[in-house]
Amino acid sequence: MKALRQQMALMAGTNGRVLIYGESGTGKELVAHAIHGLSARAEEPFIEVNCAAIPEELIESELFGHNRGSFTSAHEFEDRKFQKADRGSCFSTKWAI
Length: 97
Fold this sequence. Notes:
- By secondary structure, the protein is of the alpha+beta class.
- It contains four helices and two strands; from the N terminus they run ααβααβ.
- α1 crosses α2 (28-38).
- The longest helix has 11 residues, at 2-12.
- The chain is flat, with a radius of gyration of 16 Å.
């Protein structure tokens, strides 16, 4: 646990991307929240994205947003996950690599 805390503090001081991996139920989301809370972005949004729950044909719209008329049900501009996480943190779960 001490080594994990040291790694989280080290990562929180950077603007780099962090890959948190492990088996289900091991606390990956808790680690992500802790890194965000220790970072300079702590006052900004922490946005979670469950990529497995988003249909493949809507993933781009969900992550990047869309403009009115982009597709059949797009009636107005809507910003999405990446815009909402601007200057904050975006944590994605169930990302298939």
